[in-house]
Each structure stands twice: as structure tokens, then as C-alpha cells.
Design a protein that fits this description.
alpha/beta; Rossmann fold; 2 domains; six-stranded parallel sheet; 12 helices
Amino acid sequence: MSDGGGGAHGTGDTGGTGTGGTDTGTAVGLHRVLEPAGVLPQAALRLDPDPRIRPDEVRIAVERLNLDAASYRQLRTAHRGDPDAIRADVLRIVRERGKMHNPVTGSGGMLVGVVDEAGPASPLGLKPGDRVATLVSLTLTPLSVTDGLARWDGLSEQVPAEGHAILFARSIAAVLPGDLPVPLALAVMDVCGAPALTRRVVASRKAEKGAPVVAVLGAAGKSGCLSLAAARRAGASRVIGLVPTAEEEETLSATGLADAVVRADARDPVAVAAAIGEPVDVTVVCVDVPGCEHGAILATAPGGTVVFFSMATSFPAAALGAEGLAADVTMLIGNGYVPGHADAALDLVRSEPAVRALFTSRTGHDSAQ
């Protein structure tokens, strides 16, 4: 441990003048890193999920995990849909790493729980009893699962669970709204960075060069449908949704969220470009499978912007592919955080019935908690 040792949780001198009265190392969780020394929690091989907290930490009693789409798809594919094998693999990862950090995809997800204890120096403004969603990745959140995931059927990304998780001073969490079912709110908050960044990019492009044409790959998914709605609200002149199947094409067309819905395998660059037609100004990638970088680049006009909001993205493939195609495009990594992202996404779900209906079809919940 690089900041205070494994037995120092909740005790000792916090030192420094950084966030929440702690030094920078403590604020970002360096003291929870077991190996290798010196890296931040997201890059660590193992974290220490000791339930004893430092003065600037918060302990969450876990109620539900939400695995990110790329991670769940990989687990399901690797185990051929066997629920018991999927469950066992998730438990193994958490046990070995002290966090839910899929070693294949490099991604995790987020969680919902109730604040069990908040340190007196925590700057997060949380108090015991608050039901919250963590807006930071499970890949950097110390986590312990105690119920063997016995209530999870292994058939969806949402995982009923018992255990605890630790938030640092530099973590982010939001108190869950009282007007939405927990599974629905969790699903929205899991992807709330996508519509927020889409709104920013589209609004900026409109201010500089006029209303852009926007394409969203994976448009019928959670982040995809929110990004469609956000792009339209931000002033896009036209919004195109690309989906992989006839079923999703029919579903998305019925919502009216896109001006045009087209179908292609996002992993087939030529097919994507042909389906989109005239290259667009902004392309938002919300797929949960690898190999979609080159199609997004081909579909984007010179001087345009590609936003990769998928943990399945290979950023070397994107960079080298753009170079090889002589594509003059700006490529952005959606990092999941934009100020006000949770409130903005929840507002879209409340105010856009079509968005809410798509989320409900995935979570199976749209009634009182």
C-alpha cells in the first residue's frame, strides 16, 4: 500500500490540504492499491476492500451491480450463456481483484447501494441512509461481495448483490431520485456520460459551423437512445440511428427518436458507410462489441468529430485506422463524466416517453420501487 498501509483505514493522520482535508494520494485512493505500488486504483491489479474507512471515505452497503455492456457481453460469450459459469466468473474477479474489473475488456460498470458510513472529512455530501448510484467505474471501486450473488440469474447486466464498496474523496455518487424505479435509474446513470458529451459536442459544432448531422451507432441501446435525444435537443439538423438487426430497426423507427434508422453491422466499415450515406458531421459510437472504429471514421466527414463511447473500443485501432484512411477527423474518448450528466440524463428519461420505453424494455421495471 502506497499511502498509510493496509491497517490504516479510518485511523491516523490524513495530512495535507487536498480534497476533503486529505492529501492527494488518499483522495484518489492510492492507499487502497495492493499491487502494483504507485498506480491509481483503476490501473491496479488488486485493491483493498477493507470495510474500515478513512475520514474522507464512504462505505456503501451494496444492493445492485450494473455490469457495463461490453463486460457482460464478453462474459456471456465466453461462458456460452451459462448463468452459473457467468456468476462464478464475476465472483472470482471480485475476489481476486478487490473490485469488478473484467481483465478481458478492462471495464466494470457501477452500483447502487445505501450509505452505511460516511467519514467526517468526506466532501461527497452523503449521509447514512442515502440510497445512491456510484458514478465512477467499478474498475476503481474497492468492492466485496458477501452473498455469492445468489439472487442473480446471470441473464442480465443488473446484478442483485450484497456486500460493501468504498468511495474516495474524488469519487462521484448521486442520490437516487424518488420518482423512478431503482433498476431504471441505475440503467440511466450507468450511461449518463454519453448524452451529456453528445450534447456538448453537438452544441459546440452548431455554434461554430451550423447545425450538424449526427449519426449514432448502436442507437437502440441505452447510451444510444439517450445520445439520439440529446443530439436533437442540442440542435442537430438531422439525426441518424444505426442498428444491427431488423428487430432493432423496427423498434427504433417506431420511437421517432431518429430522422432515419438504418441497418448495418457496425463491425463492417464499408457497410456502415453505405448505410449512413453522405458522411455526417458527428458520429457517436455506442456499441458493445469490438471492431467498430473504422466504420465510424468512414461515416464521418472531413473536419467532423467521432465520439467513442464504448468500452469495446480499441483506441490504437481508431488512431491508426484514421491515419491509414487519411481521415481528418477529431476523435474523442467519452470518459463518462461531464458536469451535470446524471441530472441531464434523468431529465431525458422523464421528458422523452420513447427513451423511457426503450429503457423499460431492457430493465423490465417501470413501476414504483
